[in-house]
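Researcher: Here's the sequence for the chain we discussed earlier.
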Amino acid sequence: MFGRRRRPLMRAAAVGGAGYAIGKRRARAEQEDAYANEPEPQGLGDDGFAELEKLAKLKDRGVLTQEEFDDQKAKILEST
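Model: Thanks. This is the structure I predict for it:
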């Protein structure tokens, strides 16, 4: 009596689980494709970092005011 009813339930569980796993794989593949097609973000290069460090040292020494430092920093960041 229990054997007949149990087999369809196990089959449904197996089919449902397989469908779920396939869907997860497809979703992961689509997500990886989306990330692969995105352009690499352009960051601040070594020259930009060096320039910012130089400006920070000048500001710390009192050669530049905070406003001058902010202006120059904005120009460097805009150029990247």
